[in-house]
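As promised in the previous annual report, we have extended the structural survey to additional targets. Below is the entry for Major facilitator superfamily (MFS) profile domain-containing protein.
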Amino acid sequence: MVDLYHPGTLRNESNLADSCNVGAEDHFSSHLEPVISKLPSIHAPPAFEVYWDSEDPENPRLWPLWYKGLTVAAMSLGATVVSLSSTLYTSGIPGLQEDFHVSKIVALLGVTTYLFGMGIGSIIFAPLSELVGRRPVYIASMTIFLLLLLPSALAQNIESILVSRFFGGFFGSALMSNSPASVNDIVSDKHRALAFGFWSIGPTNGPVYGPIIGGFVFQYLGWRWTNWIVLIIGGVVLVLIASVKETYAPVILKRRAARKRKETQDPKWWTRYDDGVGFASSLRINLKRPFIMLLKEPICMFWDGYVAIVYGVLYLCFVAYPIAFQQERGWSPGIGGLSFVGIGAGVLIAIACEPLFRKVINLHRKDPATGMVQPEAMVSIVFFGATLLAVGQLWFSWTCTPNVHWIVPILAGVPFGVGNACVFIYASNYIARSYGIYAASALAGNMLTRSVMGAFLPLAGPSMYKVLGLNWASTILGIVEALCILIPVVFYFYGHRIRKASPFIKEVEKLQIA
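The corresponding structure token record, generated without further manual editing, is:
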């Protein structure tokens, strides 16, 4: 019999029978019962199990390469639109201040409400996608996200903008938190890093493209057009997303089992992902999962905290760069937006280096049981990125003043961009690899923490840079990022022990390969 989630892996019939004869209460440790779906009980006959055949065309991991590429592109573009909207707004802040007579701090609340909405939405839409499937969540949330751009574009007061951006971020979060899980759904462990590299081209550059595009949009069309641009691009992307099939294997198999029960009028058809509870109970279980993982899983706690710091510093750049290049050097909004080109170039360099990074990863010792390198191999790239992050930040901190040629601080964005991309791509990869079919829930906690940090840290930016100055404020951030290098170092050497000690990962492995 073929393993359900890892095609080509054979399972022993006696092991399957044994797992079916274990009561649900005995199969899972009590502290995990509220967050992990249970294997079927003794009433599930093995002969009626619905599973993947070895060449099943509906298995997302066996889709043709071209269709996998289309799926990755759709997921990447969807996340790009949402991340682009988060920073495109910042370019129009001077116009908002002038039209609505508000301070810069109040205008910056549009970034805060948007990112806070993303954080809240991710912990709802990620587990919801593990219950009803990724595709319906994408289509519904993306549609509402686009509709919410209308009140923001037509707003007559700042309150309307803040409210519409909160809900825009809330619904847009589905694309940010779930799309990497969809990529994880369709690729094998061997090709995951490559697929994540292609997926990340959009969302990692989205925040950087925002001020580059937005500067010229605001300068020539006005701040309202920052919304219309996102609406136009997003409408095209929504059509592409709607053309992609469901990627989440448990939901596909549960739907197939339901069809068989209906067609044969026989209730015995089942899948190992059936939980035996109603929709309301399943929803409650799924909604709890991201919180439990965030609060009890060391992998989630440390990585979510670290990525949140990185994300917060990135969003502080959208406060620091306008000060350094527009206020102190007198650049126009359009030209000032080009100061982010260095960061964007760094992100693209990191993605272009994926074949080299893959070679470095594959040099690590392989697990004899699976023939694959351990997930901690990916942490080596995170360490490299974390180092470059600190270097780029410290470089910028002491070259951003007008007495230094403008190209020097812009070039500081290159290592900073490389570092950001490496941390986001390979930290997400590590989390997804560790938690398998519950990658969306694990990544939802990651989205929550980083969105909260990205939402509130920039509010302190204007005051921080005013009191400390660009040099010292940026230096402090660089020192913090340097200290955080310890996190990938610890996980590189001890991550395998942390994973083996995790009761949650043990139970997830049972659910996937028992």
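Confidence is low (pLDDT under 50) at residues 1-35. The chain is about 75% helix and 0% strand. These points will be discussed at the next consortium meeting with the crystallography subgroup.
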